[in-house]
Specification:
The chain is an alpha/beta fold and 470 residues long. The protein contains 17 helices and 11 strands. The N terminus is likely disordered.
Length: 470
């Protein structure tokens, strides 16, 4: 995918989603009076199978796209990234699956959750390669090319209706055309990163919320001022973020050094062994090494630790994707969404497109049933069935949708402003191999064990092999 296409595509996406974001905000459902700790996505590397969900509301069959056109009778196994019973990803999928089963009483859907880290993706890959226990999967776009290359997922072209083609944003549908011009997954949503600002921590520290057109220096100043010790001895830190081979959550905070700082340059070369990249990485690492505004285990924290620390007012700011926002709103945490701070005038966020793919199938009817479920889980109808205020304040969608017909509400509409500046992870088959190569060097930089220029140059030759579009 070339850089120009991504920029134009994301800008077009923003224009459509900005209109969708004008929908009135829904009122959140009741929540505990005090913020509860964030639920961990799962134990590291653990995939959690969940039985058929119990009804949360009385449902009747509704027909339409909810009714599978297959004659399939039996089980469908759906793997969902970040799903743990009771968390922000669980309730929407539980309720959507419940409606699908109401319309298709001969089909039983079982949900398996896998965590958003490298171990979780390894579990997913193993399940796909075994050909057992998985029929559909929710995944980020950067993982799709590898699964397509290894013949582990099905193309959706022959299942796309005219209505689908008219509704799915064309540039987003093009994201899944990674081989032979075919579309290899159902686009679900677009997921950018933002800075989550805990309003209560800022108030406690006596710090005014900064302007949203903030610079890196203003961000660092806010992080310093919100790093303090409470009267009871509890330490509060100004910033944290999740660092793992499976995610890019923190990357935008050093890639914004210069537009040239990208894993792949415009001419297809490995691009992180540059002076600009080294400068950006060092500047980011200095949050821990010089400014001391991060927790002592920054760089090795689990996702649940970062989310829990923010929810429980131990961190003033974190960088994270859209899915965390509904969970915070449900828990009545006072927060704001900020764009990543600018550096040298450069605006940037990072992200991916969330997808529903169908695993390789030998049974034609089962494949059709899985495609029907994939279409439903990426539709506007699923938002009708799991509306805002039902179990999650935003309804089914935990990020701006990939279809024109999907409307987003508060707090997801707060992310719309960053979409024009979103860098999407490259669609290369060996992206996971690259991130595993990059990650230990990235950690060494954050821990102060290695200089960025040395670390990034050391992996240059091997990185070039992994980043080539095959």
């Amino acid at each position: 995918m070339n850089k120009k296409w991504f920029l134009l595509g994301v800008m077009a996406l923003f224009a459509v989603l900005a209109i969708a974001g004008c929908a009135p905000a829904a009122q959140p459902t009741s929540a505990p009076p005090t913020a509860a700790p964030a639920q961990p996505t799962a134990a590291a590397g653990q995939a959690t199978a969940v039985p058929t969900p119990k009804p949360t509301v009385e449902r009747a069959a509704k027909g339409g796209i909810r009714k599978s056109t297959s004659t399939y009778k039996g089980d469908l196994n759906l793997w969902v990234l970040g799903y743990t019973p009771g968390n922000a990803f669980a309730n929407p999928f539980d309720n959507a699956v419940e409606q699908f089963m109401k319309d298709n009483p001969d089909i039983n859907v079982t949900i398996t959750g896998y965590p958003p880290n490298d171990e979780g993706f390894t579990k997913l890959s193993t399940a796909l390669q075994s050909g057992q226990g998985i029929d559909l999967l929710r995944l980020p776009s950067d993982r799709l090319p590898g699964f397509v290359r290894d013949d582990l997922v099905e193309p959706i072209d022959s299942y796309l209706t005219d209505a689908d083609k008219a509704d799915i944003l064309p540039n987003v549908l093009d994201v899944v055309r990674v081989k032979d011009g075919k579309a290899w997954a159902w686009p679900l949503w677009v997921v950018p990163m933002g800075i989550y600002v805990n309003s209560d921590v800022f108030k406690e520290a006596g710090v005014e919320l900064p302007a949203k057109d903030w610079t890196w220096d203003q961000f660092v100043d806010a992080a310093k001022k919100t790093t303090f010790k409470r009267a009871n001895g509890e330490q509060v830190y100004g910033f944290s973020g999740f660092v793992d081979p499976g995610v890019i959550n923190t990357w935008g905070l050093w890639m914004n050094q210069d537009p040239s700082v990208r894993p792949i340059t415009t001419d297809g070369k490995y691009g992180l062994n540059s002076e600009a990249a080294a400068s950006g990485l060092q500047r980011f690492a200095d949050l821990a090494l010089v400014h001391k505004v991060t927790p002592p285990d920054f760089g090795s924290q689990k996702d649940a630790d970062v989310k829990g620390g923010f929810t429980n007012k131990q961190y003033a700011m974190v960088v994270d994707a859209t899915g965390f926002a509904p969970q915070l709103k449900n828990n009545k945490v006072n927060f704001e969404i900020y764009p990543l701070p600018t550096v040298n005038g450069n605006k940037l966020t990072v992200g991916a497109v969330g997808l529903i793919a169908v695993a390789k199938q030998t049974d034609d009817q089962k494949r059709l049933a899985a495609m029907d479920l994939g279409r439903y889980l990426t539709s506007a109808e699923v938002q009708e069935d799991v509306p805002p205020g039902s179990n999650v304040s935003t309804g089914f969608y935990l990020a701006p949708g990939a279809r024109k017909s999907v409307k987003v509400v508060d707090p997801l509409d707060k992310f719309l402003t960053v979409l024009p500046d979103m860098w999407i992870t490259p669609l290369v088959p060996d992206w996971a191999k690259f991130t595993r190569l990059f990650h230990p060097e990235y950690q060494n930089i954050l821990f102060g064990k290695e200089k960025p220029a040395d670390a990034m140059s050391k992996i240059a030759d091997e990185a070039q092999k992994y980043l080539e579009i095959q």
